[in-house]
Amino acid sequence: MQRVTIVSSPEAGPLTRRACEELRDFAGRLWAAEVDTVESGPAGLEADAALCIVVGTPEQPHVRDALGNLGAQASPVESGSYALRGKDNVVAVVGADDAGALYGSYELLELLGVRFYLSGESLPRRGPVTVPPCDIDRAPVVRLRGFMPYTDFLTGPSTWDKEDYLRVIDSAARLKLNLFSMHFYTFEPVGQFTFKGQRRTEAFWDTSRTTRWHKRPGRISDFVAGREHFADYLADDTFGARSAIDATAPEERFRLAEADIRAAFAHAKERGMRTTIGIEVTDPPLEFRALVDPGSRYGENGFGICPSSADARELLTGWLTGLITTFPEVDTYTLWQTETGPSRWTAGCTCERCTRFRAEHPLPRYTIDDLLGKVSAQVYDVEDITESAQTFLQWVLLGHDILRELAPDKQVALAGWYIEHLFRDASPYLPEEVVLSSMTEVDPWEAPPLLDHYQGVDRERWLINWWEIDFRMWLPQPKVSAYPPIMAKARRYGIDGIIWQHWRTRTVDDNARYTALVMWQPDLTPDEYYRDVFGVEWGEAAAIEAAEAMRLFERYEQWLCHDLGWQVFTQDWYPPTINQALEFMGVHGAVPPQIVADIEAKLDEIPRIRARLAEVREALRVARTKAVVLRDGDRPGFWEHRVELYQLFIDCLEHVGEAALAYRDATCGDRPTASETQALKRAYEALRTAPVLQLIQKLAERVEDRGDLGTLVNLNNELWSRYRDALDGITRWFTDAAVGGLWTLRILPDGTLRPPVIGPDALRPEGQWS
């Protein structure tokens, strides 16, 4: 049997030791070989091995000996950088430091055929040891390369357990990311503390049985499709994080959730990552507002808390103390402006001290155009942007003062939704050590112009951007081409760190992998990226067509969002307009004119949308015909599957939209009864032929991660229940208004159809919906 030897130093740091562990484990998966690890000087180089991998830093003797054996030089300097040198049966992985040795080892594994993604890795089929020659030098073009699993919806980390965090952190380290960041809404169970003798009680993780984010609750046992994927949750009949399911009291919600997050931060530190944790300082816990002195409250119903008040200082001190006590290992505490709430988009406190603060800290008069691109601006209704920015600045200065007292050795950052416009204007008022960061737009395609706000600001700055579009939720979103302009401006303005946000893992794999690579290889083009991704899976003959298919997919997505303005086109169940139409049909309500107008506009575009999507599907089909499948797992098949899912979704939109218009005709009250009866029949038939069940079943065919599980929950609880309610509503209309004019079907809980009940029999209980 062939033998592989991995050589390191007894003085190796923890990341170099991790590198050797990873090389050993992956070598065992790549090759039918015996793999040894040794800590020694040059002895391993003389061993009769098919491959000898030497890992370390330039000053270590075994690395110097290996380079001498190779007749090569390597002296990486920048933190995290590395060099690979190799020929014959010897490869030297030379890191400028401990982290560089780890990152260089991952580069070597990529050279050996491994491809790393956020959701896992893709490996060649196991075979004999192969050693390509290598002469590679790499240094990062972005110093801090971060990621932020974003907690809120069931499709994201709100449902993760500790093991899920550890797994994605390991994947991120293999992508050579070195910062792990988390933001928490105030209603989430992180950051327990006491204010005026009362502890927090209202925060929790969402599950399939909660209603926050406008979700319908439901039991797994009632799902119409996909129940087989929830075996681990059937006992509780609930999908969610184990910490949420197991908690029996508010205090336990915090204890269990914080234990998972604490383990995640500790694991990230073990993988050489910096860590940040953030809370929305302008949105203190709801249950504490009643405890605030009435004289310290402002705004409608006294919902705002005066940031100049003693209560504000006491409350924020308790909050930050709880955060630091629970997560002492975190490097940076981030003070976020709230996404919505009393201090976002609204005028500030009118007390004398707050008024004086605004006068002493003037800011330009901002408009929505300063914050958002044309698409996202349509979904925001803003009031006084400038005064809300001044209020946020006031809370940040208060939080900074408190943190300097509580944890003077920790870094402080500010962040918020689209606050780049503040950087130049607010920077003079902030202590020089405060990091400026901002969530830059909800859509990467629109982000580049907003990055100009980073220019000329002389302090540490972090860019926060999405690996997926905020409002798009669950449909596939390949957008590799969106990132080169972002990266170009990040380099031009010397941005110190980039933090990529995500809910899902598998769906954003290509966006995540490309951005991770381009932070080391800035000249890597999207086309080169896709050719490699498909080439290693399907062979070179299919790579060109597959790459063009993905670029076509990206153009389709960009066109859909920007040319058509369908940013909110794909919520977890339906777009809001279609969702509302289903609700009205379910309760016998007339569909409002503005919803009808939006549906008509969407239906007008459906043929073009379907045609363009069909082009993507055809391009992938052609690539498949040229493919020679080289690896197990069929990663490219994921995109083929999701395009089919997308087409079903478009079909559902069309049928539900047509049903809503027919329903409008049936309920307008100005037509003969016979005409209304025929319209009701058209509405019913359009709904009945909508492939809603097929859509849910299509997703259930290929569940890739917990994000898909969360989507299955929403499609069952949201889409299926609304769809059935609408069918039920139309049936009741018909039996009340025109008995015998429509034959009805009855849908069983598993989604199958019972034989129709005809005519007068439809009035009997067995003729109605389950």
**The CATH fourth-level homologous superfamily of the largest domain:** Glycosidases
Q: How does the helix and strand content classify structurally?
A: alpha/beta
- Biggest sheet, open or closed, and with what strands and sense? 8 strands, parallel, barrel
The whole-number mean of residue pLDDT values reads 90
Q: What is the overall silhouette? A: globular
Low-confidence stretches: 736-747, 754-770
| Proportion of beta-strand residues | 5-15%
Rg calculated over all Cα atoms: 29 Å
Key descriptive features of the protein:
globular; 13% strand; Chitobiase, domain 2; alpha/beta; 3 domains; 770 residues; TIM Barrel; 21 helices; disordered C terminus
Give a quick precis of the structure.
This protein has 770 residues and is an alpha/beta fold.
Can you offer a commentary on this structure?
A hairpin with a 2-residue loop joins strand 6 (115-117) and strand 7 (120-122). 43% of the residues lie in helices and 13% in strands. The strands form five sheets. Strands 9-10-13-16-17-18-19-20 form an eight-stranded parallel barrel. A six-stranded mixed beta sheet has the order 2-1-3-5-4-8, with helices on both faces. The chain has 770 residues and is an alpha/beta fold. Helix 16 (576-586) crosses helix 18 and helix 18 runs antiparallel to helix 19. Mean pLDDT is 90; it is low at 736-747 and 754-770. The chain has three domains: 2-138, Chitobiase, domain 2 (2-Layer Sandwich); 144-205 and 240-524, Glycosidases (TIM Barrel); 547-735, no CATH class.
